[in-house]
Design goal:
The structure is a homodimer of 395-residue chains.
Chain A (H helix, E strand, L loop, with lengths): L5 H10 L5 E3 L2 H7 L10 E4 L6 E5 L12 E5 L9 H15 L7 E3 L22 H6 L6 E3 L1 H9 L3 H23 L7 H13 L10 E9 L22 E10 L2 E10 L5 H19 L7 H14 L38 E4 L2 E4 L4 E4 L2 E5 L4 E3 L16
Helix pairs in contact in A: 6-7, 8-9
C-alpha cells in the first residue's frame, strides 16, 4: 500500500532532528499507518527510514493490520505475565539501540483527555498510570512534543483519508434517513437514537465498511432549546408539532463524521419554522464561501452576521465549526469569531450554525462536513436538510 | 440526600493530612457525589468539612445535579472566553485560600487511560493537554496521589451503589433477552448487536432509568474461537449450528455491569456443547464458593482446576474475573491465579470462565456479576444461562 502520509512524517522527523516518532493514541495510528487499534494499547515507532514498527499486544486481531509495517508483539493481557509493559518498553529500547538512534529524542503527541476511542469504546485505552513516565524514559534524550507539526498534518487530509471520511459521511446519511423515518409522535428520543445507531452499525460487512459505530443524540421539543449548550438523549416521547434535533458522531473504519439535522413531527409553530429557515440560509451562505485562503473568522462572520441581522444573534452561542475526520472533534484552530485559520485544499470542516432558546420554545442546528477543494468546496454530507424530507420525497 | 460515602472520604482526608480531594474523572464523581458528568470537564473539590463543591461548565445540564453539593460554574465552551481553565483554576485556588487550607496538599486520582466515558462518549473528556500540570500547581503543596486508599473505597460498594448496579444488571437482562430472541441464521453479528443496544437504550425514561447505554459485542461460529483474546462485532451473518457469544458493557445512570452469555442458532456439534456445559459447571462452582474471606486466587483455582481436569486448561487463557460497578472494568486486584484479594461484603465481581480455540472450532464464556454478602453471595445478573433459553421458556 502506498502511504501518502509517509513522506511528511519522515520530513517531520528529519526537520526536528528526531530519532523517529512514538505513537499510541488511536488517531495517530490511523493517520500514520491506517491501523485502527482494538485494545488501545498498541505503540507505533515511526523511524526516519525503513518500515514503521507496530508493537501490538498478542491478543490483538491480525486480520486488519496495515500493509508495509513490521509487527512485533508483547504479552499484554497474558495471564502469567506480571509486567507486559516492561517487555514492551525494553523491546522498544533495544530496537532503538540496534538502530543507532538511542542518542536522539523521539517525537510524540502527549495523551490527555479528548482522544478517539479504541474499538472497545466502553472505556478509555487500558494504559497504566505510569505509562507516560515509562515511555518518556526510553530514549536517553526523552520524548519531544511534536503536537505543533503534527497538527499541520492533521488539518490537511490526504486523498485516501478524504475517501474514507466521505464513506463515513455516506453511512451517516443512512443513519439520518432512519432518523427522519421515525419522527412520529409517541416514539421516545431514546428509541429514535436506537434506530439510527442500528441503521449505522448494520452497515458493517457491506460495501467496504468493516467497522461502523454511531453515537446519535436526540433532542425534541423543549429539549432542543438546550441544543447549543449540550446534546443529550432522554426518555421523552415525541409529540406532534415539535422540532427534533439529531447530533451524531460516527466512526467508519476509524474515520469520523459529525452531523446534525433538525426534523419535525409536523405542525410546528411559525417562529420555529422561521428560525429553521434562517439557520439553513446562514449555513448555505457559509458553505458557499468555503474555499482556499478564506479565514475561519471570515467564514464564522458570514453565518453570524446573517443570524444577527435577522435578530437572533443572542441565540447563536457557539462557533461555526471545527476540523473533523480523525475523531469526533479534530484538534486545531477552527471556524470561530477570532480564528485566523487560513483554509487549505484538503481540510475537512464542520459548518454548523444554530439558534436556540428557552423563550423561543426550542432550537435547531444544521451541520455538514465540508471538504475544501482547489477551486472551492465539496459537501461530503450532501443528504437532505429539509425539515420533513420523506414527505417531500427528497431522499 | 444521605451520602454513605461521605464519612469514608472525610476520614481519608483527615488520615492523610490533606486539605481535601480534587476529582475530575467520571468514576470519582459518581462515587463521591453520585454526579454523572455530561461534558466531562467538571471538577469536584471534596473538603474535610462542609459541602462538596462541584465546579461545572456553564453549559452543563442542571436537572440531574446531586443534592447536598455547592455548584460553581466556569465558562468552558463559552465562545468569547479565551481560557476557561484559568477561570476554573483561579476559582479553586481562591476557594482554597479562603478556607485556609492552602498550606495542605489535596488528594487526587491521576487520570490516565482506562477511564469511564462521560455521557458524550464518542471521545474522551475534552480536557486540555496541560490540565494535569495546571491543576497540580493549584495547592502550594501540590496534589498527592490517593489511588491506594481510594481503591479500598472503590472495591466495597455501598447499599445505594449496589442498588444502582443491580438496576444496571436488570437492564442488561433486557438486552440479553433481545440477544437470545434474534439468534436466527441470516442475521448479521452487527444486527444482533444493534437490537441489543436498542433494547437497552429504549429503557431510558422508564422505571428509574435516566441514562442507559450498552456496548454489546457479538461473535458467532469461528469468530467465537477468539473470544478469549478479543471481543469484536463483524458483519458476518449467523448460520445454523453455531455458538454465538455476547460480551456487553452497560452503563445505567453511571453504574456499570459487564455480562457475557453464549447462545446458539441450533444443531451445534457435540464437542462445543460439551465445552459449554464445562464452562457452565466451572462458573457455577466458582459462584457457589463466593463468600467473605475467600481469596481471589482460591476462586480462580476452583474454576481453573475443573476446566483443567476436563482437559481444556490450555483453552482457558484469562483470569476468572474483576471488580465492576463504577466502570466496565473497576480497578484493583481481582480473581486471578496469584490474587491475594480477600473478598469482603459489598464487593461486586465478575465471574467469567471460558474455553476457546481455533482447533475446537469455537468457544464460549459465561459471565455474571456477583455481590459478596455477609453470608455468601447474590447473583445480580441472575437471568438465563441456557444456550437457547427461549425455546425452553426459561426467561
Amino acid at each position: 500500500m502506498e502511504n501518502s502520509r509517509d513522506k511528511s512524517l519522515r520530513d517531520l522527523i528529519v526537520v526536528n532532528n528526531l530519532g523517529g516518532l512514538l505513537f499510541w493514541r488511536t488517531e495517530e495510528h490511523v493517520l500514520s499507518t491506517g491501523y485502527l487499534p482494538l485494545w488501545g494499547v498498541s505503540v507505533c515507532r515511526y523511524p526516519a527510514s525503513g518500515k514503521p514498527i507496530l508493537y501490538i499486544p498478542e491478543l490483538e486481531p491480525r486480520d486488519r493490520l496495515p500493509e508495509g509495517v513490521e509487527i512485533k508483539t508483547f504479552p499484554w493481557g497474558i495471564i502469567d505475565c506480571a509486567d507486559p509493559w516492561e517487555v514492551l518498553f525494553n523491546t522498544i529500547k533495544e530496537d532503538i539501540f540496534k538502530r543507532g538512534i538511542d542518542h536522539l529524542p523521539l517525537g510524540y503527541v502527549p495523551h490527555f483527555g479528548q482522544t478517539a476511542p479504541p474499538l472497545m469504546s466502553g472505556e478509555g485505552a487500558p494504559l497504566p498510570l505510569d505509562f507516560l513516565k515509562r515511555i518518556q524514559a526510553i530514549p536517553v534524550k526523552g520524548l519531544r512534543d511534536v503536537t505543533g507539526p503534527m497538527l499541520e498534518l492533521y488539518m490537511v487530509k490526504q486523498p485516501h483519508e478524504i475517501e474514507a471520511i466521505a464513506l463515513s459521511n455516506k453511512i451517516a446519511g443512512i443513519g439520518i434517513k432512519a432518523f427522519y423515518h421515525h419522527l412520529e409522535p409517541g416514539i421516545s428520543e431514546a428509541e429514535v437514537a436506537s434506530v439510527v445507531e442500528a441503521a449505522v452499525q448494520n452497515q458493517m460487512g457491506k460495501n467496504g465498511v468493516e467497522y461502523a459505530k454511531a453515537w446519535p443524540l436526540i433532542m425534541s421539543g423543549p429539549n432542543t432549546a438546550y441544543g447549543g449548550t449540550f446534546n443529550r438523549t432522554t426518555g421523552k416521547k415525541l409529540v406532534s408539532g415539535e422540532l427534533v434535533m439529531i447530533e451524531m458522531a460516527i466512526c467508519v473504519n476509524g474515520y469520523w463524521a459529525d452531523i446534525t439535522r433538525t426534523g419535525t413531527t409536523g405542525n410546528v409553530q411559525p417562529e420555529l419554522l422561521a428560525i429553521y429557515e434562517i439557520v439553513k440560509e446562514a449555513q448555505q451562505m457559509a458553505i458557499a464561501a468555503v474555499k482556499p485562503e478564506i479565514t475561519g473568522g471570515e467564514l464564522d462572520q458570514i453565518a453570524r452576521n446573517y443570524i444577527d441581522k435577522k435578530g437572533y444573534g443572542d441565540y447563536y452561542n457557539h462557533a461555526l465549526g471545527h476540523h473533523v475526520g480523525f475523531r469526533y472533534h479534530d484538534p486545531g484552530p477552527g471556524l470561530s469569531p477570532q480564528s485566523d485559520l487560513r483554509l487549505k485544499e484538503g481540510m475537512v470542516l464542520t459548518i454548523e450554525p444554530g439558534i436556540y432558546g428557552e423563550e423561543l420554545g426550542g432550537g435547531c442546528r444544521i451541520e455538514d462536513n465540508v471538504l475544501v477543494t482547489a477551486s472551492g468546496h465539496e459537501i461530503l454530507s450532501d443528504f437532505s436538510r429539509a425539515l420533513n424530507p420523506l414527505s417531500r420525497d427528497s431522499f
